[in-house]
């Protein structure tokens, strides 16, 4: 963890810039989009700093980088969500969750974790359903299914009982959970009722989630050895 810390300094600085400037969402602009996306750009640099060979030889890392790229595009679309680009942002983040799920992999399967995430996702959608109308009735259902699946794959990777975990797996798990909190807050605030301090909650959990997921791409143990133990 200590060796990765210095590489994340630009990300922390960019995140501070976002919260210090706190540009109003009522006046969307390319400058606002740049400031919002800057921490994600820094996470691109964080992964690229490990070298192209690292990204090529570790498919999970390259998929997480691709997910971060789609996230930045989604962030830009959401700057203009009141101008009709919310669905575009939703699509970009849906692709992000597919890429992250692929990066986390399907082993170990852990059906119990899958059942738990299924119950959580279904409960969230059941609560939101009465507030949804039009295409959002279906789009939100698909989105929740995708992020729930991503959460399952992240949680399944942490085998605490069997001592088959690494800090990178734990990082992915916590990051996925924070991502779900961020998106649930967005849904509640947009479709249901005003959430106090919603923007702060959404962005703080979002940036933390993306950082932790980016960190999960850094291998600290020989992957082949981990698979054998699994």
TrEMBL record:
Compartment annotation: Membrane
Transmembrane residue ranges: 30-49, 61-80, 86-106, 113-132, 138-155, 167-188, 200-218
Gene Ontology MF terms in the entry: alkenylglycerophosphocholine hydrolase activity
Membrane-related topology note: Multi-pass membrane protein
Record has Transmembrane helix as a keyword: yes
Main location: membrane
Enzyme kind, highest EC tier: hydrolase
Reaction catalysis annotation: a 1-O-(1Z-alkenyl)-sn-glycero-3-phosphoethanolamine + H2O = a 2,3-saturated aldehyde + sn-glycero-3-phosphoethanolamine; a 1-O-(1Z-alkenyl)-sn-glycero-3-phosphocholine + H2O = a 2,3-saturated aldehyde + sn-glycerol 3-phosphocholine
GO annotation, cellular component aspect: membrane
Residues forming coiled coils: none
Pfam families, per database record: YhhN
Extent of the signal sequence: none
InterPro entries documented for this protein: TMEM86B-like (IPR012506)
PANTHER family per the UniProt record, alphabetical: GH04784P (PTHR31885), LYSOPLASMALOGENASE-LIKE PROTEIN TMEM86A (PTHR31885:SF9)
Family indicated by similarity: Belongs to the TMEM86 family.
Protein name: lysoplasmalogenase
Origin organism lineage: Eukaryota, Metazoa, Chordata, Craniata, Vertebrata
